[in-house]
Amino acid sequence: MAHLKNKTIREFNEKDLADRLKQVRSELFKLRIESRKGTLRKESGKLKPLRKDIARILTRRFGRSKNKIHAHVPSNINVKEGDYVIAAECRPISKSVSFVVVEVRT
Questions:
Q1: What residues contact residue 50 under an 8 Å CB cut-off, 6+ apart?
Q2: DSSP β-bridge partners for residue 87
Q3: Which of 9, 25, 55, 97 satisfies CB 3.0 to 4.6 Å to 93 for a cystine?
């Protein structure tokens, strides 16, 4: 089985990702058994790429994209939770706040 690249992983749908994950895990299991028996050479370098493939697939399946930012809300702007706002980057106000709310969109 060829090693997976991020570009090909992004093109898979959920069902394909689950199937590929199952295949890669079974192949890794077989290689680990060979390694324990002593029939797999240590220099073959087959285990590490498979583990990386599994990590890439799991990251793609369960990874979250960050769509929330920490922003300072000035006292003259009325904002409720769930409102759409325009935020501008500014100097760091605190450890995690580097944006300020400029405008509220309705």
A1: 24, 27, 28, 31
A2: 101
A3: 97
85 near 49, Cβ under 8 Å?
Answer: no
Q: What would the pLDDT profile of 22-44 be if each residue is shown by its tens digit?
A: 999 999 999 889 888 888 877 67
From the list 59, 68, 106, 62, the residue with the least C-alpha distance to 87 is: 68
Q: Please tell me the total number of residues recorded for the chain in this structure.
A: 106
The dihedrals phi and psi of 28, each to the nearest 5 degrees, come to -65, -40
69 against 76, higher pLDDT: 76
Helix/strand/coil for 6: helix
